[in-house]
Amino acid sequence: MSCSLAAWCANQGLTPDLAAQLANGWRASAYRKGSILFHQGNAPFGLFFLCTGQAKLTRREPGGRLLD
User: 0.70 exceeded by the pTM?
Assistant: First the structure.
């Protein structure tokens, strides 16, 4: 499966202008299994678009216990 921002934008019904804005800041990245993409509570630094593979979302409760 190839990663195509243009195809994703078209499938989501985004206007060409909005698609162009996204494409302006587009950067493809690859991550190894087990990589941490962001931490709970940190300010977001981008939009993640998953092309292949899987992502696992976990969070911690206030006491620190990990919730899956």
Answer: no
